[in-house]
Prior knowledge:
The chain has helices at residues 18-32, 64-75, 92-101, 138-143, 148-161, 179-195, and strands spanning 5-10, 36-41, 78-84, 108-113, 119-121, 127-133, 166-171. By secondary structure, it is of the alpha/beta class. It has a single domain, classed as Rossmann fold, CATH 3.40.50.360. A five-stranded parallel beta sheet has the order 2-1-3-6-7, sandwiched between helices. Strand 4 (108-113) and strand 5 form a beta hairpin. The longest helix has 17 residues, at 179-195. The protein is globular and about 50 Å long.
Amino acid sequence: MAPRRIFVLNGHPGKTSLSRLFSEDYAQAAVQAGHELRITHLHDLDFDPDFGGAGYRAAKPLEPDLEAVMANMDWAEHLVLLSPMWWGGLPAKLKGLFDRALLPGSAFDTRAKTWLGSPRPLLAGRTARLIMTSDTPHWFFRLVHKAALVRQLRMQIFGFVGISPLHVTHFSAVINSSPETRAKWSRRVASLGARGA
Length: 197
């Protein structure tokens, strides 16, 4: 595959985490394979995750860190999001990043509509990979929870702004995983990075 511009967003709010380890595994392999790469760790970002009141007319100005995230999304051809699943969803700070940063005029255009009547997406032409960790077994997540978090990201967040397709790599169950299993997962993530996938 030709070299790609890749933006890696580690969406775990902790300073150290399995998501951070995987993000660095991916980044190192991607750079060694010749891809251009930018990486951001959610823990290092300083912003108010609370969108505030309803509507976009009185939206808070973006903090510099959120402006940098959007600049990286604009630059990238491929977005890699690493995140744990907590209570069936995204960590609050990561959800707050999407609430605050994906705004009309930068992520979608409310003045123009798609054939379904939705606002026109402004981040089309980009692909994405979700590398998700959870304690919920993969089969239970798919059969019982109907992969709700993946559907939210694929259709209501990334798909809404034009980032598609979203490929998913799910590692579980983390809580009982052995060092050997985690090393195997790291190798799989590095393989994705080398391919820019």
